[in-house]
């Protein structure tokens, strides 16, 4: 089977990072096959954002895979544990945050690998970023390297000598650099969603780690964040 | 958190291999947390077998995770592709079989890793076997080694210096050796299910690769396979 255009599976959460990763894959000439997970988040805002972003990026297909990480428990994003809130980025605690979902990126990349193999995709793009999220073990360069090695031996493609390449183009970029690169490539950040704890109307809380890092990133980039924050109303 | 007994997550398909792997984990003193996938198989017989085996093995808990691999397609086990049938083991074709599900063991181990981390499990058991299933890239020793390395860097446990150990005790055993070991440890093989294409009543077809390898294994072990085959009626 020959494909006129190289295909890439893009893990798309609907946040700033994965939306920029999708734009980078697009700019490199790939046909995009977006993959999003509904994994017992406490809100569907992420999935809706991913749908908007996939459409805007001209994805050939967008698959939403439902998995139940609640059955294992263990994270503020899937459990009833309270999402920590702060006023500034400096208040974000060190170490591995309670919002860490065990093995999440391993699970996401494993599905991406299966999807890539089925559709004959040569590349997988993941928007992980070690600078602003260094607390997560599965956002580090050594994790990507280890997953690449796994992909080389785990798949028919790898055994046949054409391993699927795992690309993490944002791995050493700051949030501000990611935002600038996304802007340059035409990402409409008003479509994106980053908040761990949005209001029932879907507004970002403005105070969870993810909101704080996003807002600081836009400030550092000298750009205006186009989304609405609940705190804007106060 | 201290646990009185070491915990192991056991990937349990309900077949001969994973049932024996569970018995080995049990014999080594682990408290068992069984994990089974409902992944768009064309039959639920596997999941029912896994439930019987988990109960018989005295598992502390048995989680059935539903995932939709059909959305990707690409395998006789999830698609409508015909399952190949033969009369003897020698007729099984070389190379990677069409029953290969892309990245299946990578996905299963990724979930097991998340589960293990959540419950504080020190070990994961998987019943892969490179001798009789050498056609599957993700049943080889190098796959297990690569996944172990990934587990070391992907998790909080690994980063904290107590990585979760991935154990594949059957990796270099023949099917006959696995069956003998299972028998020795008290596995009731009448509870297990191996067939890729059972009859509507749940009887094994007797001619798919999995049935052929199982039957040959029992013959080689000099033991009687206690399950019913549709061909027994002819």
Outline of this structure?
By secondary structure, chain A is an alpha/beta fold. Chain A has helices spanning 16-27, 45-56, 104-119, 141-154, 156-159, 175-184, 209-221; strands spanning 7-11, 31-38, 61-66, 123-125, 165-167.
Please tell me about this protein's structure:
The structure is a homodimer. Chain A is α/β, with parallel strands linked by helices. Chain A has a single domain, classed as Rossmann fold (3-Layer(aba) Sandwich), CATH 3.40.50.620. Chain A has 7 helices and 5 strands, in the order βαβαβαβααβαα. In chain A, helix 2 links the parallel strand 2 and strand 3. In chain A, helix 1 packs across helix 6 and helix 6 crosses helix 7. The longest helix of chain A is centred in the middle third of the chain and has 16 residues. Chain A is globular and about 55 Å long. The model of chain A has no long low-confidence stretch (mean pLDDT about 90).
Keywords, separated by commas or semicolons:
homodimer, 234 residues, alpha/beta, 35% helix, globular
Topology diagram in text:
Two copies of one chain form a homodimer.
Chain A lengths: L6 E5 L4 H12 L3 E8 L6 H12 L4 E6 L37 H16 L3 E3 L15 H14 L1 H4 L5 E3 L7 H10 L24 H13 L13
Parallel strand pairs in A: 1-2, 1-4, 2-3, 4-5
Helix pairs in contact in A: 1-6, 6-7
CATH topology tier name of chain A: Rossmann fold
User: Nearest-angstrom radius of gyration of chain A?
Assistant: 17 Å
How many beta strands in the DSSP annotation of chain A? 5
Instruction: Report strand % of chain A.
Output: 5-15%
- As an assembly, this protein is homodimer
Mean pLDDT of chain A: 88
CATH architectural arrangement of chain A: 3-Layer(aba) Sandwich
CATH homology superfamily name of chain A = HUPs
| Main sheet record of chain A | 5 strands, parallel
Helix coverage percent of chain A: 25-40%
* Count of structural domains of chain A: 1
Per DSSP, the total helix count of chain A is 7
Strand order of the largest sheet of chain A: 3-2-1-4-5
Give the topology string of chain A: H per helix, E per strand: EHEHEHEHHEHH
Structural class by sheet pairing and helices of chain A: alpha/beta
């Amino acid at each position: 089977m020959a494909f006129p255009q190289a295909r890439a599976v893009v893990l798309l959460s609907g946040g700033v990072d994965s939306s920029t990763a999708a734009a980078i894959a697009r700019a490199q000439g790939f046909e995009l096959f977006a993959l999003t997970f509904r994994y017992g988040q406490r809100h569907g805002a992420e999935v809706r954002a991913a749908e908007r972003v996939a459409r805007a990026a001209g994805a050939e297909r967008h698959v939403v895979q439902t998995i139940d990480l609640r059955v294992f428990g263990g994270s503020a994003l899937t459990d009833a544990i309270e999402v920590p809130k702060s006023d500034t980025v400096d208040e974000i605690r060190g170490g591995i945050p309670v919002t860490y979902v065990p093995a999440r990126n391993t699970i996401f990349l494993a599905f991406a690998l299966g999807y890539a193999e089925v559709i004959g995709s040569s590349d997988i793009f993941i928007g992980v970023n070690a600078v602003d999220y260094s607390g997560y073990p599965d956002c580090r360069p050594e994790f990507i390297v280890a997953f690449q090695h796994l992909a080389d031996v785990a798949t028919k493609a790898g055994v046949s000598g054409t391993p699927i390449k795992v690309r993490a183009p944002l791995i050493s970029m700051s949030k501000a650099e990611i935002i600038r690169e996304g802007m340059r490539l035409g990402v409409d950040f008003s479509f994106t969603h980053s908040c761990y704890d949005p209001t029932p109307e879907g507004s970002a809380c403005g105070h969870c780690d993810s909101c704080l890092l996003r807002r600081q990133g836009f400030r550092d980039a000298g750009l205006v964040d186009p989304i609405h924050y609940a705190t804007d109303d106060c």
